[in-house]
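chain below, 404 aa
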Amino acid sequence: MYRLTGKRILLGVTGGIAAYKTAVLLRLLQKNGADVQVVMTRGATEFVTPLTFQALSGKVVHTELLDLETESAMGHIELARWADVILIAPASANFIARVANGYADDLLSTLCLAADVPILVAPAMNQQMWLNAATQENLEKLKTRGVVILGPAEGDQACGENGPGRMLEADELALLTAKTFETNILTGSRILVTAGPTREAIDPVRYISNRSSGKMGYAVAMAALEAGADVSLISGPVNLPEPERVKVTNVSSAAEMHSAVMQKISDTDIFISAAAVADYSLETISQQKIKKSSDSFELKLKKNPDILLEVAALQSAPFSVGFAAETENLESNAQLKLRSKKLDMIAANLVGDNAGFDVDTNAMTVFWKTGQKQLQQAPKNRLARNLISLIADQYNGKNTNKTH
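prediction:
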């Protein structure tokens, strides 16, 4: 279930005896790498205490719509924006009815209205309540809005009856949650991503580099993998775990990154250049540590090869996507780079003042020859999935046009 690594799951618990199973589900989600926050309805607290989920998750459990202690740090809107997916397990007949009819009278129902992420609902109720026409109508309403209904299963129930209405078991719910992130929009495509900074040596102990953390590039690689692509990642020096099932090549300098890219580019359908490659390197690298000997010191630099420009200029160039980190004139600088390098797309974002580098969220504007789209501030992994969706639209459209 590698697709849960780094995913932010808002786990909603409503009133029902199946709430005890949610404790097992929480641990299973965490075991597979998910970051989980729990929201409970008042009815849920009658079956399992918030302390149980707090002890298991290591985080405060959210129960109140207007909580003065949490509102200052993470209000209900911020919590909705934090999540990659909302999973409600168990979902009672009452809660399903309230959400289907647009109620926002507690924290969990409000989050369902405020979040722009997939919502998964795992019903759990008496079999007659499940079969009731009102419940079925409410479920159909949710389905038409894109809500995914997980289950229920059939079997013995706490009330002593037998039939449909049992909540799915924790392992099945965890697997179905993981599959939410699998889109298959780039199945069969070979994608090469570059990420992180490069280091240009001055002497054996010093180098020139930049503030890139590699987080965006790594998130793009994972999003491409979830989209069904065969993904290779060429990474500069970063402090990040290697993504599972991604073929990683580690490099240090711009020259090494250039060499690694050119070795792989002939087998690439889409090239995404997210790395912050140094524009210049030292003309001469000292073989010994340079000693402090004067009040001033000069370094003579030479221009590095422009990897993205070189790739996009190839006779059989892959679909080429660049990144532009700007401190001013975002659109004009990005559009210039798009045209001058003959790229298919470019993702541009502002950096500086706690934006872009060394943070877990970002915002960007994506440009292509015939359009553009603003991607609002979001966690980088969600932003990466939105970017990959845009890339898939343009790449698949371009290839479709070639065949007609």
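Residues 380-402 form the longest helix (23 residues). The two ends are 39 Å apart (CA to CA).
thats it, cya
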